[in-house]
UniProtKB/TrEMBL annotation, chain A:
Transmembrane segments: none annotated. InterPro entries: Ntn_hydrolases_N, Proteasome_alpha, Proteasome_beta4, Proteasome_bsu_CS, Proteasome_sua/b, Proteasome_suB-type. Residues 1-14 have a biased composition (Low complexity). Residues 1-23 are annotated as: Disordered. The keyword Cell wall biogenesis/degradation does not apply. This is Proteasome subunit beta. The lineage of its organism: Eukaryota, Viridiplantae, Streptophyta, Embryophyta, Tracheophyta. Non-catalytic component of the proteasome. GO terms for biological process: proteolysis involved in protein catabolic process. Keywords: Cytoplasm, Nucleus, Proteasome. The 26S proteasome consists of a 20S proteasome core and two 19S regulatory subunits. The 20S proteasome core is composed of 28 subunits that are arranged in four stacked rings, resulting in a barrel-shaped structure. The two end rings are each formed by seven alpha subunits, and the two central rings are each formed by seven beta subunits. The catalytic chamber with the active sites is on the inside of the barrel.
TrEMBL record, chain B:
It comes from the Eukaryota. The active site is at T23. The keyword 4Fe-4S does not apply. One of its GO terms (biological process) is proteolysis involved in protein catabolic process. Gene3D superfamilies: Glutamine Phosphoribosylpyrophosphate, subunit 1, domain 1. Pfam families: Proteasome (PF00227). The keyword Nucleus applies. Its main location: cytoplasm. One of its GO terms (molecular function) is threonine-type endopeptidase activity. Belongs to the peptidase T1B family. This is Proteasome subunit beta. Keywords: Cytoplasm, Hydrolase, Nucleus, Protease, Proteasome, Threonine protease, Zymogen. Component of the proteasome complex. The 26S proteasome consists of a 20S proteasome core and two 19S regulatory subunits. The 20S proteasome core is composed of 28 subunits that are arranged in four stacked rings, resulting in a barrel-shaped structure. The two end rings are each formed by seven alpha subunits, and the two central rings are each formed by seven beta subunits. The catalytic chamber with the active sites is on the inside of the barrel.
Amino acid sequence: MDGSHANAASAPAAAGGGEGTQRTLNPYVTGNSVIAMKYKDGVIMACDTGASYGSTLRYKSVERIKAVGKHSLIGGSGEFSDFQEILRYLDELTLSDHMWDDGNSLGPKEIHAYLTRVMYNRRNKFDPLWNSLVLGGVKKGPKGDEKYLGMVNMIGTHFEENHIATGFGNHMAVPILRGEWREDLTFEEAVKLIEKCLLVLLYRDRSSINKFQIAKITTEGSTIYPPYALKTNWGFSAFENPSQGAVGTW
Amino acid sequence: MDASSLMGSSSDAPTSGEHRMGTTIVGVCYNGGVVLAADSRTSTGMYVANRASDKISQLTDNVYVCRSGSAADTQVISDYVRYFLHQHTIQSGQPATVKVASNLVRLLAYQNKSMLQAGMIVGGWDKYEGGQIYSVPLGGTILRQPFAIGGSGSSYLYGLMDHEWRDGMTQEEAEKFVVKVVSLAIARDGASGGVVRTVTINADGVKRSFHPGNKLPLWHEELEPQNSLLDILAAGNPDAMVQ
């Protein structure tokens, strides 16, 4: 088969293993939620550009969505070093694929399947890659251009859906998406819906920052837009003096 | 390895954690009184339970306290202290001094130290000593200081205060300074956020102020907020990275 080998880099028991048994670590530098959904022309994906170090918002210009080959986008939350390692694996994979020079290229479904195997196998060795990954893309298939969106996490759970969110997004964005997503969203409508989710996460997720990146992938290729910030609303009259009627309240 | 830690970043369920005020609190003396300031974020685990809380509570007409740590513990302490000070004011016939108010806070914090997680900054004005700031950290120490910082966000402010603190600021300088300082901490501390509330106390009385999150200055790597990406695109050609 091709030369991809998922576990080339697993240094045996070097860190925290000793006798090669337990190794599950804690994450150190972490990215938070990634949100994605299918829309009329392809798949749109978004996340903030922050990476936290515990409760410190340490890195504020981090790109957590990357293009993979010609047909896919990957978004990663969780331990950032593991995400970077996964990007290296994907580079190897796409390079081998390209060197076949056979006119074929790996589509999003194949990349997702590969990632699922990597994540699940690492999990079985109690040495997980501490991430939740979102994989989206568009590729020509037997029924025309087929949009694909799936996710896989650190324990190997994987599925496909019309809309995905990781981390806190599971609790806060998915309900919004379930209510408002439609098959035929235009790019503008999709951006508005994504921004609604991003704003809720900004208000309610402690680890989020006000700097976002949106990316889309269509048959024409992938586009990752430059980072930008959203306006927040603090103009509720109840916010101005909450303890006026009840001294000592929070 | 329990299930919640395996789920990655959002390990604390939003409903089961205790309400904590991660917080940044600041109190400074200026020439004429004090300014107290705080952020407004209260979280349970990683969920922001209240994004516009009021962490500066009134103890008397002339003394206020900034609260950090457990929301429940600090609320109950300030409720007790308010109650005692009310009686004290009636008995003595004049406003309580800042020193008395701070020491009551200290007594509760010290005598119940094994059960409480409360870091507080008491600030106010009285006719004997003018503007005063007292720090009452975990354990129940009491320290009078020209300025005080507290809460998880204060870690990011020690260097800044060492560098920029000056004695004898004017009221306007002091108010601007505390807003700047709290918003810098908010930029880096995940447990702080929201709006900056300030309370200025001097001989003339008390002034409460509200600085909403979207009016705070922008710091390093922070961008000017927009309504939507669509506005940026409509304004014409940002350098999109097409692959």
